[in-house]
Amino acid sequence: MTSDATATATTTPEPEPGAGSEPKPGRSRASRIRRGLAWTAAVLVLGSAGAGWWVYSHLEGNIDSVDLDRAIGTDNRPPKVVEKAQNILVLGSDSRAGANGELDHGNVSGARSDTAMLVHIPEGRSRATAVSIPRDTLITRPECKDQDGKTVPGANRVMFNSVYSVAGPACVVKTVEQLSGIRVDHFVEVDFAGFKGLVDALGGVTVTLDQPMTGAKGGLKLDAGTHRLNGTDSLKFVRTRYGYGDGSDLGRIGLQQQFMLAMLSEIKKQDALGNPARLYKLADAGTKSLTTDSDLASLSALADFAQSMKGVDPSTMETIMLPVAYDKVDPNRVVIAQEQASQLWEALRTDQKVPASAKDSPAKGGGKSARSKSPAPEPSPSA
After folding, report:
1. What's the rounded Cα separation, in Å, for the pair 43 and 68?
2. Range of 56-70, 90-104, 125-139 with top mean pLDDT
3. Cα–Cα distance between 167 and 185 in angstroms, integer?
4. Burial (CB count within 10 angstroms: exposed 0-12, middle 13-18, buried 19+), residue 126
5. Which of 274, 321, 361, 376 has the most crowded Cβ, counting Cβ within 10 A?
6. Beta strand pairing call for 205-209 and 370-372
7. Of 297, 306, 246, nearest to 274 (Cα)?
8. What pTM does this model have?
9. By mean pLDDT, which of 263-277, 330-344, 347-361 is the weakest?
10. Cβ neighbours of residue 30 under 8 Å, at least 6 residues apart?
11. CA distances (Å), 240 to each of 38, 39, 55, 335, in order?
12. Cβ–Cβ < 8 Å for 361, 323
C-alpha cells in the first residue's frame, strides 16, 4: 500500500501552477502543515513586535520635553567642571490642570514649582546629594524666554516658586544655574497626577512619623508611628504644612525629603527595575505626567540614565536644605544665607564632600520628624 502510494506520487507529473489540478493528498497535508507553522511563527513574531512597538510608542508618547539649549541658549551658562558628575533639577509642579484638579481643589490658577531639588550625583555614581530649595525664598530672576518664546524681563525679590508660573521650567533651570554656578545637566518635572500614579504603581510607600499629623486646613491626619500610604495620601503627606511641626514651608521640606528616600527605598526593595511587568506599570504611571529636557525625552535615554544610577543607594543619599535666613523686611519669606550656600555650591560644583558648616541654615523651620521606614520584608504587590 505504501509503495504504491509512493510510486504514484513520484511518477505522476505535478500540475503546472495555475493549471487547476489538485495536488495529491499526501503532498497537500504536508504543505498545509508547513504553511500553518510558517504563518503561526509569522503571527507570533509580528504580534510580539507589534505589541512591543505599541508599548514603546505609548510610553514615549507620554513624555513632554523642553530643549534647554534653545530655551536658555548656550552662552552665559556655567561651565561643566567635573565631566562625569551629573546635576539633575527635579521639579514637582502644583498645576491643577486636567487630572491634577481632582487631586487638589485649591482655588489656584496656573502652576508653580511646588517642590524643587537639585540632585548632585558625583563621578562614580555610588552616592548622591539632594538640595531642596525652599519655595518661599526671595531670589533675583534672570531675563528669560517663556514657553511661547516671549522675553520675560528679570526681577528682584521674587519668590522662587513663582519663576515657573511666570516663565516656565527652562527659566527655573536658568535661575538655579545663576544662583549656584552649577551647570544643570538634566531636569525632570512631575505633576500631582504623575506623583500619585508612581506611588500607586508601587503599591504604596511606608513612612514613620515621630509626632502626629493633625490634618489642619484639609491636610492628612495621621497618628505618630508607621503608615503605608497610597498615592492620594502620599500627595497630601508631601504637601502638608499647617498640620505638622511648626507649620512652615521649611518644615514641609523635611517631609518631602524623607518621602523621597522612602520611595527610592521601595523601588529598590521591590527590584522594580528588574521586573518587566512592574517596570511597565511604573513607566506608564511616571511618563503620563513627565516633562524632561530633550536629551532625556525618550524611553531609551531614560532607561540608560536609570541604569547608570543603579549604584546610588537611598541609604547613602544625603538630603540638605539650601541654607536660608528669614528676610528682614518680610519675616514670612526667606533669603539665601550666602556664606553657607557658597560653601555648599562650591562643594557640589567641584564634586567634593559637603562640609558641615554648609548645611547649617540660620532659618531651620520644623526640622525632620518623619523618616523612611525599612520594615521586615512584605509580600510584593501584584505586578
Report:
1. 43
2. 125-139
3. 20
4. exposed
5. 321
6. antiparallel
7. 306
8. 0.76
9. 263-277
10. none
11. 60, 59, 36, 22
12. yes
Cell of 268: 529598590
Render pLDDT for 181-237 as a digit per residue (tens, 0 to 9): 999 999 999 988 889 999 999 999 999 999 999 988 888 999 999 999 999 999 999
49, containing H or E segment = helix 25-62
Amino acid at 128: A
* Cell reading at 215: 490634618
Is the Cβ–Cβ distance between 180 and 172 less than 8 Å? no
- Specify the pairing of strand 86-93 against strand 225-229: unpaired
- Sequence letter at residue 334: V
Sign of CA dihedral 98, 103, 107, 113: negative
Which pLDDT tens digit goes with each residue over 128-164?
A: 999 999 999 999 999 999 888 899 999 999 999 999 9
For cell 498615592, what's the residue?
A: 231
225-229 and 205-209 beta bridge pairing: antiparallel
